[in-house]
Task: structure prediction
Amino acid sequence: MSVRNMISRWFRWLLHFRWLVTFRLIAAQQEARKRLLSEPRYQNPKRLNRHEFQVYSQNGEDGILAEIFRRVGIVHHTFLEIGVGDGLETNTTYLLLQGWKGYWVEANRRHVTFIRRHFSSVIETGVLMVKQAFVTAENVADVIASLGVPVEIDLLSLDVDRNTWYVLRALLHVYQPRVLVVEYNSLFPPPVNWKVEYAPEKVWGRSSYFGASLKAYEILCGEFNYALVGCDLCGVNAFFVRSDLALPEKFLPPFTAENHYEPLRDYLMCRVGPPRQFTDLTD
Result:
């Protein structure tokens, strides 16, 4: 056997082994999720976790949002998401495929260049507006105003890692989204009310020091008349609904961190299926 044929055989074997490990990992995650959802906590039909599914979201956020809007209705079909990366793992890309329009803000210039190319079909028609900006509590209102975002939109999704709590507080002084998604730091369970010290020039250092606890977000959002209605099973994102829409016959009270907190379950995090794209462009 030639060296070339031997290398080719080893490469095919390694590729097969990789896919085998991936499939077994996915099967184990799905079984763990199934066991978790069988627990008494998740049998109440008002809990959102049984509705989780993933299209473009990081975890099950696409499904949770679909269920929330099934319960509260859609008025404007408009979203704002801050911190979208390259646009292929967001809470709002799936909504673009369902006739929504919206606004994206991203700090990374390379990601914005990618978005402008791969999402050109919806950008050129005005369905999606994109802005490259590093947001802080001091500038976020001006950044969003420059896009012409209405005061009331259906969905605000926020993930700026380190200073999220402070940016959110600044936004809620101006904007009134009907539904709100925010990443919380699940290292700190309720009743811990914790957040990072504000430093507008700093970014997340890839450690546990980021954002705020779920209790801190519950208190903050409560001051602006938002109710915590659930968190995803992975313990990453929290979902709030404006209090006039968070009716007890539709969502599970009490709307507290103690009731809705989910711990970090990184063993459930998995992108199932092929790599996501919005077009068939290869670069």
